[in-house]
Design a protein that fits this description.
This protein has a single domain (3-81), classed as Non-ribosomal Peptide Synthetase Peptidyl Carrier Protein, Chain A. Helices cover 59% and strands 0% of the residues. It has 4 helices and no strands.
Length: 85
């Protein structure tokens, strides 16, 4: 990962941890939000809204179901922000 990618990943980890009310160290790239951290649909919507505001991007609602772990959130943010080719 580049420095910018690492920074984005860590920002998303902090933001997600805040929304899920867990310690950021508990969030591994593949720990599942619902199964491992007992998150709910309102937290998922809050996370989506925070990401859209913070990065000034629009994430399609259908992507919400795919945002099940930190790596997936990172991948979706990259795709929706045009960082990926």
């Amino acid at each position: 990962m580049t420095t910018a990618a690492t920074q984005l990943f860590e920002e998303l980890r902090e933001m997600t941890a805040e929304v899920l009310e867990v310690d950021p160290a508990e969030l591994t790239p593949t720990s599942r939000f619902v199964e491992d951290h007992e998150s709910d649909s309102l937290q998922a919507i809050e996370l989506l809204a925070r990401i859209e505001r913070r990065y000034d991007i629009e994430i399609p609602q259908e992507e919400l179901a795919n945002m099940s772990h930190l790596q997936a959130v990172y991948d979706i943010v990259e795709k929706c922000s045009g960082r990926r080719g």
